[in-house]
Structures are given as structure tokens and as C-alpha cells.
Amino acid sequence: EPEVTQTPSHQVTQMGQEVILRCVPISNHLYFYWYRQILGQKVEFLVSFYNNEISEKSEIFDDQFSVERPDGSNFTLKIRSTKLEDSAMYFCASSGSRLDTQYFGPGTRLTVL
Amino acid sequence: QQQVKQSPQSLIVQKGGIPIINCAYENTAFDYFPWYQQFPGKGPALLIAIRPDVSEKKEGRFTISFNKSAKQFSLHIMDSQPGDSATYFCAASMAQGGSEKLVFGKGTKLTVNP
Lengths: 113, 114
Fold this sequence. Notes:
Chain A is mostly beta strands. Chain A has strands at about 5, 10-15, 20-25, 30-35, 45-50, 55, 65-70, 75-80, 90-95, 105, 110. The termini of chain A are far apart. The mean pLDDT of chain A is about 95. Chain B has strands spanning about 5, 10-15, 20-25, 35-40, 45-50, 55-60, 60-65, 70-75, 85-95, 100-105, 110-114. Chain B is built from no helices and 11 strands. In chain B, strands 2, 4, 5, 9, 10 and 11 form a 6-stranded mixed beta sheet that branches. The model of chain B has no long low-confidence stretch (mean pLDDT about 95). The interface between A and B is medium-sized, with 24 and 23 residues.
């Protein structure tokens, strides 16, 4: 069964450093998403991406964040200057259309020291 | 209001019991209500979903009951098993209304004792 994959599974970084989280969505999907889950809290929407542009973003997704689909298969989330409060599990998701199920990857645990 | 309120926060049942998890929403523009199951260290996985044109949907041992007038929906797990022990999230979106972002509840940690 096709699945969303994410790398790395765990990323540790120093405050102020840039990180790139990578995702490979399901191959025929067209809609891509990033969510995050701070430990013990609910899953929160960050951004949705379709046709090589952001279609919606939350207030969390400020200028420190950016997304890119660099090569037609990967979908990346970049945090330019990490803060302690960016420590969370980051989930990538994809769907075949706007009305279809969103399939989540296993997540990347980001720890900012 | 974009929130989805979920209760209880945690739930313990015996094997064979019927845990019920409840969610409520304010925004009547929500038109899609999925439930996700999450095991430790894994991403959320879709369990079952409903749209507001039906009041109930059943898939295997999982049933969603939907009350449009009360703006509430709930998940029932029949004949629960220890393998059902996980965190369950309700969610809502306005996909047909132009926003497919999922708004999640805070989650319910279910423990099914053998």
C-alpha cells in the first residue's frame, strides 16, 4: 500500500539553526500538507500546497517557515532560524484531491536545544 | 469559531466494552468529519469519516454518530480489543467550502484492558 514517508525521523538542532524536513508524498497525489504536534497537544495545521504554490497557511506559518517541492517527488518544510518552541513532531500529509482523505506520514521529531 | 472540542481526554475500558468519544464544533461551514487513530511514534491514520448529509456511518466495529442540529459527532467502538488502545482524534474541515485544512480535537487516549 502506498504511504507517505518522512526523513529524518528525529532531528536535533541548535536554536537559530536552519532545518529542512523532507517528505515523499504518495506518488499520484496532488495536494500536500504540513501539520505539527507539540508533545501532548493536538495536531495543528501549518500549510497546504497545490500546483506549486501555497493554498492556505495558518498563523503559525510565519516568515521563518517555507515549503518547496523541489523535484516533483519531495516536499520540504524549511525553518530558517529555529526557536525552542519549534520543538514538535512535524507531519507531512498528502491527498489525491481537495475532498479526498489526507494520508499522514510517520512524522519527524524536531528537538531544538 | 474554528475549534473542535473533544472529550474525554482519556478513557479506560475492559475488552469487549464500547468506548464512546465525543466531539463538538461551532462552525456550521464544516462539511467533513474524520476520525484519526494514532499509535505511539506513528502518524495519524484515518479510521472513518462522515459528511453531514448522513446521521450515522458504520465501518466494521467503528461507528460515527452525527447530530447536525446539535453540532456534535461521536465515535463508538464495538467489542473493543487491546489492539484498539491508541489516541483518537476527531477533526473537521470545510473541503467543499474551499478549505481542506483539518482542524483537530485535542485527542482521547483510549486504553482497552484485556
